[in-house]
């Protein structure tokens, strides 16, 4: 179990938290299961299935997206474009080994019944599990569970979710999106997520060029023989994290490119 604030043995609440003890529900092998952590420890995270299928409605104006995940090698049903941006971010992170959309449902009373379905679960090579919500402060739509989604309502649900995750050794993050430049950079790299069949022919040369002092994007692109094959491999190496580039900046010929020293 990861370091985290231990819940009070009598109330189950995290010190300084919301003092709420939600019920966890997972879907495994086609059946929803109310999970009792004290009896079962952690759920089989790689066997988790979405607890619901995202749909548009009058109360939820997000447009569902079906997107291919290289991490899972399968299509994922996502709730919105913002959630798709989050998947793109995680899909190119070499430390992430598995993704589950709509992975669980939390329910509690306060005093009326409240429920919350986070957007994504990610698993890392270290075993770290992170629960994600994709949400912006401008998102004033009613939420996916049919509850009024005023900003303070989401903040309350996020606080309960964060405490619940902390109590079981999981992480919780809210993804609020990229700025325009970073989003466009991710969209561009998404087109190079598949490893080209001719990669072995060019990878070594690209990595050697990128390891030189003052290596730049323009220099790597100029090394292509005109066929475009080397360029496609270079962009895939950027997508995979083998090459490091500033994702937040507008790319030019002078943009620095380096061999990655760990992570993205």
Brief rundown of the structure:
This protein has 264 residues and is an alpha+beta fold. The chain has helices at residues 37-40, 81-91, 151-167, 180-190, 199-210, 217-222, 229-240, and strands at 23-28, 31-35, 48-49, 65-69, 74-78, 96-101, 105-109, 113-116, 120-124, 129-134, 171-175, 243-244, 258-259.
Question: What gyration radius follows from the Cα positions, in whole Å?
Answer: 21 Å
> Helical proportion?
25-40%
* DSSP strand tally: 13
Report the biggest beta sheet as strand number plus sense, adding barrel if it closes. 5 strands, antiparallel
CATH class of the largest domain: Alpha Beta
**CATH topology assignment of the largest domain:** Trna Endonuclease, Chain: A, domain 1
Residue fraction in strands: 15-25%
How many domain regions? Answer: 2
Name the helix and strand elements from N-terminus to C-terminus, one letter apiece.
Answer: EEHEEEHEEEEEHEHHHHEE
| Gap from first CA to last CA | 25 Å
Task: Give me the secondary-structure category.
Answer: alpha+beta
What would the average pLDDT be, to the nearest integer? 87
Q: Tell me, what's the shape?
A: elongated
User: DSSP helix count?
Assistant: 7
Assign the CATH architecture of the largest domain: 3-Layer(aba) Sandwich
Task: Give unreliable regions as ranges.
Answer: 1-16, 146-151
Give a quick set of tags describing it.
264 residues, 22% strand, 7 helices, 5-stranded antiparallel beta sheet, disordered N terminus, Trna Endonuclease, Chain: A, domain 1, alpha+beta
Account of the 3D structure:
The structure is a single chain. This protein has 264 residues and is α+β, with helices and mostly antiparallel strands. The protein has two domains: 23-175, Trna Endonuclease, Chain: A, domain 1, CATH 3.40.1350; 180-259, no CATH class. Residues 1-16 and 146-151 have low confidence and may be disordered. The chain has seven helices and 13 strands. Helix 5 (199-210) packs across helix 7 (229-240). Strands 1, 2, 3, 7 and 8 form a five-stranded antiparallel β-sheet that branches. A four-stranded mixed β-sheet has the order 6-9-10-11, sandwiched between helices. A two-stranded antiparallel sheet has the order 4-5. The longest helix has 17 residues, at 151-167. The chain is elongated.
